[in-house]
Design goal:
Elements: H1 3-24, H2 37-44, H3 48-60, E1 64-67, E2 71-74, H4 99-103, E3 109-110, H5 123-136, H6 151-165, E4 174-178, H7 179-191, E5 197-202, H8 206-214, E6 218-223, H9 231-241, E7 245-248, H10 262-274, E8 278-282, E9 307-312, E10 323-327, H11 330-343, H12 349-359, H13 362-386, E11 401-405, H14 412-421, E12 424-425, E13 427-428, E14 441-445, H15 451-467
The protein binds pyridoxal-5'-phosphate (PLP).
Protein name: GntR family transcriptional regulator
GO molecular function, one term: DNA binding
Keywords: Aminotransferase, DNA-binding, Pyridoxal phosphate, Transcription, Transcription regulation, Transferase
Length: about 475
Amino acid sequence: MSKAIQNEGYLFKQVYDYVMHRIERKEWNEHDKLPSVRQLAADMNVHRLTVLKAYKLLKQDGKVYVKDKSGYYVQTSMKENNDFENIQYVSANVQKKHLSDINQVPVSYHFSQALIDPNLLPNHYFSDYVKKVFDLYPKVLATYSTVQGDEELRESLTHYFINQYKTHLHADDLLITSGSQQAIHLLSQAFIKPRDTVLFERPSYSAAIDIFRAQGANIITVDIHPDGYDLEQVESYMKRYKPRLFYLNPTFHNPTGYTVPADQRKKLVELAEQYRCLLIEDDAYHDIYFKETPPPPIYTYDTVGTVIYIRSFCKYISPGLRIATVICHSSVLKSLLSMKSLADNGSPLLNQKIFLHYFSSLRMQQHLEKLRIALQIRKEIMEEELAATNWQWTSPHGGLNLWIKLPDHFSSELLLTKSIQQSISFVPGQLCDPLNQLSSWIRLSYSYVNEKQLREGVRRFVDVAGCLSPPESC
Ligand SMILES: Cc1ncc(COP(=O)(O)O)c(C=O)c1O
């Protein structure tokens, strides 16, 4: 083959890849017009025939289509695969309404916030620790943290995890992130390309759904029940769809509060190893139990590096410090570190040091013990006030939310509109559903408002819902 022909072949492939890259990155979306042949040839400094050849092949491969005399357009990305019962692919579009939109509405009764009442958090102790940190590290604000996170903090967390779960762990296996939200985001960037398949629990944490959708993932759902998953279903999906990863929140799951039992955890790791599917275990609520400690995290059953474990400490220590840690295999860590350095070059050192000194104190344990009692009382108040309804839920043993099934005729979106008029917010089920359905389900958080407001607010809320059932009654 002559050099000129080889070169031409190489250039045309470059044009092809360039267009695909921009489509995959969602810079050019479905039905967007591609640049004209003349334009792209000029932009890329190649012959027009080279661009034309690339466009023709893109068309042949079903990536673009032609409109008469008008040019080339981006093709719809996915052909629906309907040959497998109960499977629904979800498009890569980000949901229109976000949880953060609801949380920003100024209301008196915030049942949408899966956050702990600031009055229950150890605010006044933090000023002591801020002082202590500046005494110990006078230059703490004059320097970056390492990208991986403060070594002293990673050492301390390593000892904590070893004490808790008796597993082998080294401080080098940990990455400190700015909250678990950032960890999920970094993981999606590191491991997901547009159209990669991922497994998700249904329902699931709504921001995680948005993050993976924004990355262009095709989400396949596995229902989560009070007693865990249908593992046969999980296996059949792993086998058939070869998902890149399974994002799960198996302990006091958000939004349901369910906990996956220990025997399923072990089996899940075996399946994930067998089908080479990463498990992302998001464990933001592990310590927020009412009586019995939950089963050990799934990562403790992992021996080969299949599980990526994310533990956030934001909820019950300080959402504002934004401290979470990821425990993972060195190969995963390598990718995460490069994403983390691009994102922020390391979490703020001051926050890490304040957290470190509080976390390793006796006060932390005392705080958690009191907090568990306070949250259990709030959960019981909410349940008492809801007892008069015919709504259904499984009482959780930990976490911050009730996941409630309203009678079928309810539209949680309509109920939300009416509730906000009465200064009450909650999360409609659709936002927690990767399939954007579950419209007669709602998530009510009992953790954010105080006991008095909780009673008042839930009473009001039940009244608002009563007015929608039947529609004419109010
Ligand atoms: C399951 C789950 N993961 C992650 C997060 C984000 O928490 P963080 O404050 O650690 O970013 C939340 C917050 O609601 C959550 O419920």
